[in-house]
Design goal:
The protein has 228 residues and is an alpha+beta fold. The protein contains five helices and eleven strands; from the N terminus they run αβββαβββαβββαβαβ. An eight-stranded mixed β-sheet has the order 4-11-5-10-9-8-7-6. It has a three-stranded antiparallel β-sheet with strand order 1-2-3.
Length: 228
């Protein structure tokens, strides 16, 4: 299925492009390594491609399809949920750090348990035991505690997705998300990549924050979660 832009079919673009090394499946359908998350996609909406996608759905889990247009439920699976996302792309140069922003530290394997706990609390999106390995993640700590984090997920030609933005509830309202997103954007810019992200379309507060950082809505995309 042809796409005018890689972001029109983001999961297909990531798993057949820069992150093909994370893909399971064949030319008809692929899903991401289950340790990284739940994304999957069929090449087409033909019965054979949808059957190949259905075969990749685990008995005890889900696959999340993210497409520019609503996607049919493959035979042999059931719809768990649908949602609409605002797909946003950064325009211009990343914002500079604000005066007084907290120190931002790189996160790695040793931080994985704390990152998973924070993701379970903040629910930034699908998180698995290897999600922290998508790429550089950064965090803010105070007295040893990880208060907030952000990093990257999907990679496209010349583009990278800001993802995993999470803050403990008792630490919100301090500007940590803004500081971390700005830091991630600057890191991407240094690599010559344009930042993009996805937000639930009805999350007006998040969208306003992203717009204040230079993101603009490119289009709506559709999420379909399926299970056996």
């Amino acid at each position: 299925m042809a796409a005018a832009h890689p972001l029109d079919r983001p999961v297909w673009s990531m798993l057949t492009g820069r992150q093909a090394h994370l893909a399971e499946g064949d030319a008809r359908a692929v899903r991401i390594d289950r340790g990284y998350g739940v994304f999957g996609v069929a090449a087409y909406t033909s019965p054979d491609a949808l059957a190949a996608l259905a075969a990749l759905v685990p008995d005890d889990g889900e696959i999340w399809i993210v497409e520019g247009e609503p996607w049919p439920v493959p035979a042999g699976t059931r719809e768990v949920k649908r949602a609409v996302l605002a797909q946003m792309v950064a325009e211009g140069s990343p914002p500079p750090p604000r005066e007084g922003e907290p120190a931002i530290l790189p996160l790695g394997e040793d931080d994985a348990p704390e990152m998973a706990a924070l993701a379970d609390h903040a629910k930034p999106g699908p998180w698995g035991p290897k999600t922290h390995r998508y790429g550089p993640f950064f965090g803010i700590r105070e007295n040893g505690r990880l208060l907030a984090m952000a990093g990257q997920r999907m990679l496209m030609p010349g583009m990278a997705e800001v993802s995993g933005v999470s803050t403990w509830e008792d630490c919100r309202g301090r500007g940590y998300a803004r500081a971390l997103i700005g830091h991630v954007m600057r890191e991407m810019a240094l690599r010559g990549e344009q930042p993009f992200l996805h937000s639930y379309a009805d999350n007006a507060g998040a969208i306003a924050l992203y717009e204040s950082l230079g993101f603009r809505i490119r289009r709506e995309v559709h999420v379909l979660a399926i299970a056996k």
